[in-house]
Amino acid sequence: MPITMIADHEVHVDDEGFMTEYDEWDETLADTLASNIGISPLTEDHWKVIRFLRSDFAEKGETATLRRVSTVGEISTKELFTLFPKKPARKMAYVSGLPKPAGCI
Amino acid sequence: MTTTETSPTIVPDFGDDAEPRKIAFVCSKGTLDMAYPALIMASGALEQGVETHIFFTFWGMDMINKKTTGDLKFTPVGNTTATRQAHMPMIFTAFPGVASIATSQMKKQMEALEIPDVPSFLSHLTDMGCHLWACKMSVDMFGLTEDDMIDELEGVLNVGDFIEIIAGAQTMFI
After folding, report:
1. A104 an active-site residue?
2. Whole-number mean pLDDT of chain A?
3. What whole-number distance in Å separates Cα of residue A104 and Cα of residue A84?
4. Partner of B75 at 20 to 30 A CA spacing, among A26, A33, B5, B142?
């Protein structure tokens, strides 16, 4: 696993650049991760998604899918496509320091 | 003494600058087990930012008919996988009630995987920007009107118009 620097933090990432250690992420990293992929600035609406993903991962041990964010997190799929354009499932996982969702839907 | 090597920042390639992609599914079957493959693949495509179209034709019309969309069935008749899994001789599969049991079992399996039922799935897809089309000839053949079909439907198309809309798309017939 490569180690890289994000916002002055040394973190473990996979070959694609997704963070692999849940505890290495903190809120100060999110802005840098987001701007790396062209999302800037992060708004309160983005934060709602990020906080849901983080707490859901802590509980379930896997990254929530778009469907789960809409049914359990109560954030509509349409809104997710606005906040994290084109590939919301992967982009929101990346910004939240989580692996890509494994589920198909 | 060991030294830790720090790599330069790796940023995932989300393909934002790549050429836009397009995918189309033709759904021609009205059974539960043949409805899900297109729905799941369409959802995956939409999540990857791919423009996605689904064209419902023939028995696939049951997927978008308000009367049947929530009541698609699965029958193990002629299905060697299902009979093997259920340890059931093929001749029993045609008995009354077997299709209902098989259907409710499949629905339970889908639910356990947090996969929505067909009506919720279709509205989840349109929330993601999926285009749903009904086949003009099938609409005429079954004597349907737009009121008979789910609200998420974008329109009724003849084959020529559909072929034009999906120019350049990867297409799957199911």
Report:
1. yes
2. 92
3. 18
4. B142
